[in-house]
Amino acid sequence: MSRTAFAALLVALLAAPAAAQINLTGDWDMTIQSTQGTNTVKVTLTQDGETVSGRVTSQLGEQPVTGALTGDDLKIAFTLPIQGQSIVIVMTGKVEGPTLAGKVQFGDFGEGDWTATRAEAAEVAAKPTAAPGSASGEWDLTFKTPKGDVPATATINQDGGKLSGTLSSPLGEGPVTGTLEGTSLRVTSNVITPRGTLPVKMKGNIEGNAIANGKAKVKGIGTLKWTAKKRQ
Questions:
Q1: Domain 20-125 and domain 127-230 have a common topology
Q2: Hey, how many other C-beta atoms are within 10 angstroms of the C-beta on 152?
């Protein structure tokens, strides 16, 4: 390449406008349309270069999301447990400023359309779950076990991000300790039962006065889903 051609190329590169940087990190409100109707889910994404990860929260609980962003082309995937089957959901689309849109493939069960917009910061700030003391109070819990629902109650006291209290169930009662970061709750309890101490580790997200997507690890039993509602 001649010096003249090299200089012209350098000038062109320096004069070219820089490509807009896309950052998908944050919370998104997603609408999915299928032959079964329209569903809205919450999606939290984290972007590291071209790698995209996060979680999707729906009536079926919380599932991890993986994917990639190439230019403004987005591809993400997650798995939903439906009627005893694991259905892989693959979504492809374009990033257009604060909105996303594209096609979704429901495993072998057809496809549909989807759109997503960034959750408004004002709405996030207004959520009562983010307010100090939002975990404090009396809660009615339901643990989903293979043998049916098991009720429980919890009395929680919050001091900043630290939680303490008591968990009571048909098996027994135990002290509760834990943390609340934003809406993410994590607690542990050693329930005293007639057969000894039963360690329980629980996590979930508070939404208003309810927890709909909780998961609990119970020693000797495994991982259980749980929900909770605060008494008014």
A1: yes
A2: 21
Q: Does position 100 have pLDDT exceeding 80, yes or no?
A: yes
- Name the residue type at position 156: I
Residues 176, 10: Cα–Cα separation, whole Å? 65
Residues 6+ apart with CB under 8 A from 147: none
DSSP-derived secondary structure for 42-104: EEEEEEETTEEEEEEEETTEEEEEEEEEETTEEEEEEEEEETTEEEEEEEEEEEETTEEEEEE
Can you give the pTM of this predicted structure? 0.45
Domain boundaries, the chain: 20-125, 127-230
Position 124 pLDDT exceeds 50: no
Q: Quick check: 173 and 158 in contact, CB under 8 A? A: no
Q: CA 18: distance to chain centroid?
A: 33
- Say whether domain 127-230 belongs to CATH 2.60.40.1230: no
Q: Which of the four CATH numbers 3.40.50.300, 2.40.128.120, 2.40.30.20, 3.20.20.110 does domain 20-125 have? A: 2.40.128.120
Q: What is the pLDDT of residue 83?
A: 73
Q: What is the tens place of the pLDDT at every residue in 3-46?
A: 555 445 444 444 444 345 788 999 999 999 987 788 889 999 99
pLDDT digits (tens, 9 = 90+) for 59-92: 778 999 999 999 999 999 999 887 778 889 999 9
d(CA 36, CA 109): 11
